[in-house]
Write a structure and sequence with these properties.
The protein is an alpha+beta fold. It has 18 helices and 13 strands. Bound molecules: protoporphyrin IX containing FE.
Length: 479
């Protein structure tokens, strides 16, 4: 549990909160929970734009200068995720988010074509269908007073990713017995408990804890949905149905790209997919990454729109000039320029992934101040802190979508805004997410007027989410 001497010496030169022997900062610096973001912002204020904490023997160096973030994210060598991600392994296995080296490279190369814009065009039809179901589900809340809209949004986001990328319909929105969404939330909390406690890093000790027991039972639920999804897909593939582009499988038009491709690669003995577990790890990763981040961002955007009626009206005006009798297509969604800025601004103040970390595999120097970052430490890009810096975004907590008008963004460092990360390990689902979210929001605002209560509680466990909020009231728009 002692850091090596070199790490200790380099760490001692970097400012940071006082660390206790052995445990370091685990009691005075929580890397999750409701105070996480304030913690980051206050530490930045107190120690400057580069500071460190010790979690047991591991050194974590936090950065927020755009040029330092650029160095980290564009590096082709600093691609190994930080030690904290190890705690996700029991759940996400070798999936793209946490794998590294040659395996990550092969997988990324194999999966990238499945997010081609032509495939996304087919996915947009799914986003439309799921958003229409959401609008119907919300009908039960019209004029009924405040309710938490996040529950509706998360089931919709889960339906869109499962039906599009996996080609399987699970009807999360209309099936009340779905434990998966809650289990993801619980598993995120288990994972951050593990990150916060270095004792939990020692497997024999961790095995004896209640947290491990909770993890085991959650994994049973979290494993079962990807299993079902793969099984359903394999059955339809055996029937030869998936080969026909216009064919329908259980009422779902064949639009599969991702999972079908993975199963084909497994059949063809592709070096990136050697076992069924490899496929399952990716399905689990994409179902988690593909719906949880999107849900969080949708919830925050709904809150902002519900608090800013004038901005909501501008969105309404824009979407009602585009939505018509026909299904929305990709080009229609791309025309929603104002809504695009609204979502971007919401992701600035609440980036679903508030910070990302890399293991420093070789000594590295920070461009902003020439500080040595030693091999063996972890660098953490505090996306949320950078997004809220007043020197980069004046009056940072003001919700102002027009910050993203090209004329207003001129001169801003390109790495001062990175909600989807950047460089070789950027978010593979960025375009997917923007189309999905814009389709969903446009349909909600086209049909309903939203008013949100002021209270918004946030909580961080891997990603930043709204906690039991936003509470909103909806009324039907008459046209
Ligand atoms: C608002 C929505 C989203 C946000 C803000 C977001 C953000 C991010 C960020 C910041 C990363 C980098 C994480 C890191 O370096 O540790 C990432 C990676 C990733 N995202 Fe997203 N994401 C979103 C939606 C999606 C969707 C819809 C999918 C899939 C359909 C997806 C799949 C992934 C995957 C697989 C990775 C790992 C990529 C790699 O390491 O090669 N994300 N995302």
């Amino acid at each position: 549990l002692q850091p090596n001497r070199r790490l200790k010496e380099a760490g001692d030169k970097i400012p940071g909160p006082p660390a206790a022997p052995i445990v370091g900062n685990i009691f005075n610096f929580k890397v999750s929970g409701p105070t996480f973001v304030t913690n980051l912002l206050e530490s930045q204020e107190k120690y400057g734009s580069v500071y460190k904490i010790w979690l047991g023997p591991t050194l974590h160096i936090f950065i927020s200068e755009p040029e330092d973030i650029q160095m980290l994210l564009t590096s082709n060598t600093l691609i190994t995720k930080s030690i904290a991600y190890k705690n996700l392994r029991s759940w996400l296995g070798t999936g793209l988010l946490i794998s590294t080296g040659d395996l990550w490279f092969k997988r990324r190369k194999a999966i990238t074509p499945t997010f081609h814009f032509k495939i996304l065009e087919d996915f947009v039809a799914v986003f439309n269908r799921c958003a229409d179901i959401l609008v119907n589900c919300l009908e039960e809340q019209v004029d009924k007073g405040p309710f938490n809209i996040t529950d509706y949004l998360s089931n919709c986001a889960l339906d869109t990713v499962t039906e599009s990328a996996m080609g399987t319909r699970i009807n999360a929105q209309t099936d009340p017995k779905n434990e998966y969404v809650q289990s993801i939330l619980d598993m995120s909390h288990v994972t951050t408990k593990k990150i916060n406690n270095p004792i939990y890093q020692m497997e024999p000790a961790y095995t004896l804890t209640g947290t491990k027991k909770e993890e085991r039972s959650l994994l049973k639920i979290l494993d079962s949905l990807p299993d079902q999804v793969i099984q359903k897909k394999k059955e339809t593939a055996q029937n030869g149905i998936t080969k026909k582009v216009t064919e329908e499988v259980e009422g779902v038009k064949k639009r599969t790209a991702f999972l079908e491709l993975l199963l084909n690669m497994l059949k063809d003995n592709h070096p990136a997919f050697q076992s069924e577990q490899d496929v399952k790890d990716e399905v689990t990763t994409f179902m988690f990454e593909g719906h949880d981040t999107t849900t969080a961002s949708l919830s925050f955007t709904m809150w902002f729109l519900g608090r800013h009626p004038e901005i909501q009206e501008k969105v309404y005006e824009e979407v009602s000039s585009i939505i018509g009798e026909e299904e929305l297509r990709q080009e229609d969604i791309n025309k929603m320029k104002y809504l695009d800025r609204v979502v971007k601004e919401s992701l600035r103040i609440f980036p679903s992934v508030p910070a990302i970390g890399r293991t420093v595999t070789h000594d590295t120097v920070l461009p902003s101040n020439g500080m040595l970052i030693p091999a063996g430490s972890n660098l953490v890009a505090q996306i949320i802190v950078t997004h809220r810096r007043a020197d980069l975004f004046p009056d940072p907590m003001k919700f102002d979508p027009d910050r993203f008008l090209p004329e207003n963004a001129k001169g801003r460092h390109p790495y001062s805004y990175v909600p989807f990360s950047a460089g070789p390990r950027n978010c593979i689902g960025q375009k997917f997410a923007m189309l999905d979210m814009k389709a969903i929001i446009s349909k909600i605002i086209y049909n309903y007027k939203i008013v949100a209560e002021e209270k918004l509680d946030t909580n961080s466990a891997l990603i930043i989410r709204s906690d039991n909020s936003p509470m909103v009231t909806i009324t039907r728009r008459e046209r």
